[in-house]
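Treating backbone geometry as a discrete language has practical consequences that deserve illustration. The sequence in question and its structure tokens are set out directly beneath this paragraph.
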Amino acid sequence: MFKKTLLALALTSVAGFANAAVTSATPNVVSLEGAVGQATIAVPTYTVTLAAEYAAGDTFTITLSGAEFDTTSAPSIAAMGFTSAPTVGLLSKTASTATFRVTAVPSGETFSGNTFVLTGAVLKTTSVTDAAGDIKLSYAAKTSTGLDLDNVGTATSTVVTTKSQLSSSPTTKLDAVIDVENERKQFTVGNNTITTDILVVTPVVATAGTNDAVYTGATHVIKGDFSWMESDGDAGIDAAELAAAFSATGGTLATPTINTAGDAITVAATGAVAPMTATFTVLGKANAKAPILPTQMFTIDTTIKYNTAAGTASTKTIPSASAGAWTLNGFDENIVFMPFDAQYAQSINVSNTGSVAGAITVDITAGGKTYTKTLTATATPKATTNISAEVKAFATESGVTGNAHVKVVVNSPAADIDVSGVYYHRADADRVKTK
């Protein structure tokens, strides 16, 4: 008796593996942007190829993962391939399941090799647009007495894949190197040119397949320090100064604008999707009006405009991204606080551990103005150079009193240079190291 029981269990196990339904579907690729506002998202044809025999009272459940069925969903089963189709009815449904029951089986009808096809199922739109990954349906059947039927575990197929259509990124970044040997008024040889640097921002509209978004334009905001564009001596950067220092091409573009603070340039594009190429042009040392160029980091903010598949005008904000940087072919250090008045004395030293002597330039910023001078002293190799007296004299010469910001620029390899800054309160000899 014991041997017969083991044999029966073994045969049941083999039959279970042999009788396994197979599911299939061709997934709909749904646009995350374009689908917004749709009433529902359709479930494509989901086919279950049967591999066992069913009887009246047997049930099967189709389970949804990654999204929810819409409340209007009316899932039903079409029995395909049968000589006389069995009767299958919806037993129950939830936001994630639809359970069916076989209620009648024509005499002599065979199930194995024929198919059940799910129809009438639709998804809740917000659950699709919030989806993180593929949306799937799985199939599992049971006999009327609750035993597993026609499946080992579950059979699963992807029915919807979500795809973000709209993106944008800087495909060529600003990368100019400001030339110390040319008074920081132009770039080194080897950049785009000694007076120009180029940024390319490329919007992308990928094809999704279902509920596609339609691109209508983009707004690019380039952020940085554009104070160097001011050339006529009055406050702010006017349209003529902006046009001389900045141009943009690619697609249909509105005239670029700059904000009052001089730290954000806006370029608006309409029409067909196209890369935007921005060219920055500095005056260069040969122009007497050329300002000192600031080392800095740039960022790009892009907002893409589009219509949803339902025709609603919408926008997508692309996360802020690096648009590159302007660096220096030497060393620069900021002493963020240094007081210049009768109560204080200053000590500023430049240490050079390398073998290359470097010219030293200082910028003193106070009261909203910056004063620049190349010092007589140089960064002597293998030595520390005290520039306190020259910096103090230059501050006095420039009319700087009170608190100031000091930038020290050295035309030597950056790895070899260090700057220290200390100020002393004369009355109590208290000293504060600021760098």
